[in-house]
Design goal:
The protein is of the alpha/beta class. The chain has 2 domains: about 200 residues, Rossmann fold (3-Layer(aba) Sandwich), CATH 3.40.50.720; about 25 residues, no CATH class. It is built from 8 helices and 9 strands. Helix 1 crosses helix 8, helix 3 runs parallel beside helix 4 and helix 4 packs parallel to helix 5. About 40% of the residues are buried.
């Protein structure tokens, strides 16, 4: 059976851990070449050393996605190391949870710099090459916060709503030139960030159980389950999917919660 991502040269951000690492592993297993970016250089080096991949299939660079020139330089390096990038997965992001009047100016700015501007910086850097070479695919890892509002999570959902707007705007702008732009919206995922959150409670086991109980199936997603959805969306198996958001949350967002 042919590898599903053979011929894909993917620029992946936020790749050192969690969902990003799971996506990297899943894409490599399907024959992709990858260029990995993360702002944590030491962790990224460790991650790359642990990946199983053919020689020449993985490049990497330390960069903050909110830094446009740094991302432009990383794309140039990726093009040189793995070949012209024809797929982008904007996975890097950050949680900023507060209330509107308590959120600081710094939190607001960093939230948008990473969760929106970062995705745009990467898209802007890869689009010229994609347009010059007949197309490509961009996948933005969004969140169910992009279409729901949970109190006390401000301003994170504002940025994720904006990311879905960016997805649709780029998709419609470049659909006629062979570029597909879509989003993947996970709900709760069992990553280290989730574990750290549960551990912040006096009873971490109870906090974890409460999170699981919110879901129709009584559990949350693994990072690999999100990664498998990403493989499908970045592959050529859905050539007519454009400006779409695939929700992977176990049905949570469809529940009718009491007021």
């Amino acid at each position: 059976m042919a590898e599903r991502l053979s011929g894909k040269r993917i620029f992946l951000t936020g790749a050192a851990q969690g969902i990003g690492l799971a996506i990297a592993e899943a894409c490599l297993a399907e024959g992709a070449k990858l260029f990995l970016v993360d702002q944590d250089g030491a962790l990224l080096e460790k991650t790359v050393a642990g990946l199983v991949a053919p020689k020449g299939h993985v490049g990497h660079s330390t960069a903050d996605i909110s830094d446009g020139p740094a991302i432009k330089a990383a794309i140039a390096r990726a093009n040189a190391e793995i070949g012209l990038v024809n797929a982008l997965i904007n996975n890097a992001g950050m949680n900023v949870f507060s209330t509107p009047l308590e959120a600081t100016e710094e939190e607001w700015t960093r939230n948008f710099d990473v969760n929106v501007k970062g995705a745009w910086n990467c898209s802007k850097a890869v689009l010229p090459g994609m347009l010059a070479n007949g197309g490509g695919a961009i996948l933005n890892i969004a969140s169910t916060h992009g279409f729901t509002i949970i109190p006390h999570t401000f301003p994170y959902p504002v940025a994720k709503h904006a990311l879905l707007g960016l997805t649709k705007s780029l998709a419609l702008e470049y659909a006629g030139q062979g570029v597909r732009v879509n989003a993947l919206a996970p709900g709760y995922v069992e990553t280290q960030k989730a574990i750290d959150y549960w551990n912040s409670f006096p009873d971490p086991a109870a906090a974890r159980a409460n999170t699981m109980a919110l879901h129709p199936g009584g559990r949350i997603a693994s990072a690999r389950e999100i990664a498998l959805a990403a493989v499908f969306m970045i592959s050529d198996e859905c050539p007519f999917m454009n400006a779409a958001t695939l929700v992977v949350d176990g049905g949570l967002s469809q529940l009718q919660h009491p007021a």
